[in-house]
Predict the structure.
Amino acid sequence: MNTAVSGEVTPEQLSVVDRIAADFGGARGALIPMLQQVQAELGYLPPAIMERIAERSGVPAARVFGVASFYSQFRFEPVGRRILRVCQGTACHVQGAVAVMEAICDELGVAEGGTTEDGEFTVEPVACLGCCSLAPVIMIDEDAFGRLTPEQARDIVRNYGTAQDEGGAKA
Amino acid sequence: MPEQSTSSKVTVGLSSCGVAAGAAQVYEAFRREFDERGLSTPLRRTGCIGMCYREPLVDVDTEGLGRVTYGGVTPEQVARIVEEHIVGGKPVDEFAVRVEGKRLPDEDYYDRQVRLVLRNAGLIDPESIDEYIDADGYQGLTRALTEMTPEEIVETMKESGLRGRGGAGFPAGVKWDLARQQPGGVKYVIVNADEGDPGAFMDRSILEGDPHSVLEGLTIAAYAIGAAEGYIYARAEYPLAVRRLRMAIADSQERGFLGMDILGSGFSFRVQVKEGAGAFVCGEETALIASVEGKRGMPRLRPPFPAARGLWGKPTNINNVETYANVPWIITNGAAAYAAYGTETSKGTKVFALAGKIVRGGLVEVPMGISLRDVIFDVGGGIPDGREFKAVQLGGPSGGCVPEEHIDIKVDYESVTKTGAIMGSGGMVVMDDRTCMVDIARFFLQFTQDESCGKCTFCRVGTKRMLEILDRITSGEGRDGDIEMLEELGQQIASSSLCGLGQSAPNPVLTTIRYFRDEYEAHVNEKRCPALACKPLLTYEIDPDKCTGCTLCTRVCPVGAVSGEKKEPHVIDTSLCTKCDACRKVCKFEAVIVS
């Protein structure tokens, strides 16, 4: 992990942790929801933030790291403004998800799991989005797009930002 | 001046798959159209209507005309539906897929279905508790709390024959009884909504389409067992399901179906939603409990079973979404009515998510005992594009592939297990002759390998070794003895792992070797993929007799591997070719040959 970059946190970020930890007030089993909320607000979990969570919740830092690294939802590097999930489920796989993933990565110039240079998209493979009859499927933040060809997937990522900004319809 | 219109009600299916197909835009188009025309026609939303292959779906219910379902609706078609049907009173036949009182081809999809769990899906607004109550909702709970003792409820569940729908098929009534008989005052009930099998979306559709049914079932279970607190552990990838569950909890609390002294019975119960954080192994009950407790989701040895020592060390009952959704129906209609469906050992119905190479993919509910063939061909309409059925994958990464020779088996726990597959939670992915069985086995193993929690050595290391072998085979580097090694490793992993994930991880590989050994052998011995799916084993060539030299392929090739003069046969430089398939797709003369 590049601690030189992701290790620095601002006082504002630390105060987010303090507020969320205070909300939970030491409730049992609160570690995972706490990590989820902090990540929802900050976008990711740098080490200093996890240390702060440990301090405020009384959970040992080793356990905070252990839990966070166990679950695939938690990220330790900053992510793009939008998360682009490419479904890798069985139905999508047999309907050409591999080609869709290749087209998206090629279009955005990133590897699977990577973030575009302009910080717009992070491309994440995901086990199954549960829209199997519309395979292959991708999801940008909470908008799902189905029955894609690689070319349509390219069009969607190319036009997504503009369509959103103009309040236009999604593909 | 508002227009006159028929007395109609418009309902748009807004589950995740509907939304993915563009249903939100269709909903908006109706709203705009109504506004512009000044119509006061009610516009409602509902969950999964079930005909996923026809999404986006819109129901128009008109007094005197009955219900008409439109399929594949686009925003552009909305104006015509409003003009002709809602204002004019004449349904637009060319967009309709179901018309009450008429027999359109899509009726085949419903003929064999029995919708008990999906009784409300696609009919009611999942965000309206009133619509749930109007559809006889919370009657089961009312009867349970006012007319039945906990013992009677457990007895009813046992008599119904309902078995856990998460995959293992343990009788629900017996499980409840075990938790009920445990001493001690503090007990818990949990809904396992961590539906992680790729290719399965039953639970998502139930939660999105009828969240109150799950909540009602859970509350009945809590009363039967003596639990005052419950958790719904839901997958984080299902944001809409989580939102609707939270809404349902708040609404039912307000109406007194949850909370303190429910319906004046003296029984109190509260429920929280816990969002999973992305770990497939948490579908295993002891791992799920660890996760709710805020720990790494790793399974532990059973016994003690959660019924004796579960959440926070207290007796805990865990069932999955579909199991709980059955409960209100059983309590309302009686155990005998439920047990009237199904076979000797498997009662009731099962929801399947039908997907893959199938004409009518969607969410279907069929009585136990129906044959796999009937589900795939009668309900699902068979294989599209005139291709041939090859196999159906049941049970996701824990299951196996059932080949043609066995598709006349009955859908029940024992019959499916005999094929080497498992009933599983209900994922049913159909494969045709273009699906490579070695590639599918590799696909599932990659998944379980990635999701192995790492606790048991055989699961952690063994799956890795198996994956390496499968990678080798699918990239044309298979060796003598690889198939036998896969079988041996598979058996070892199955017998040396603690939880269901490891025990069943080799199933997709072992069943495909059992039924499709020749395909493995073709990959290993001849370096050939019979289904033409494994890229490294393919070669692209141009048939000089068919090529007209139109140059289309030279223009789409992203790596400049195709060359040739205009009106002369072209050639592909195989050393440059990346097998992207672009040339084959654009060729109008079928001159690009893949072998």
Chain A is about 50% helix and 10% strand. Chain A has a mean pLDDT of 87.
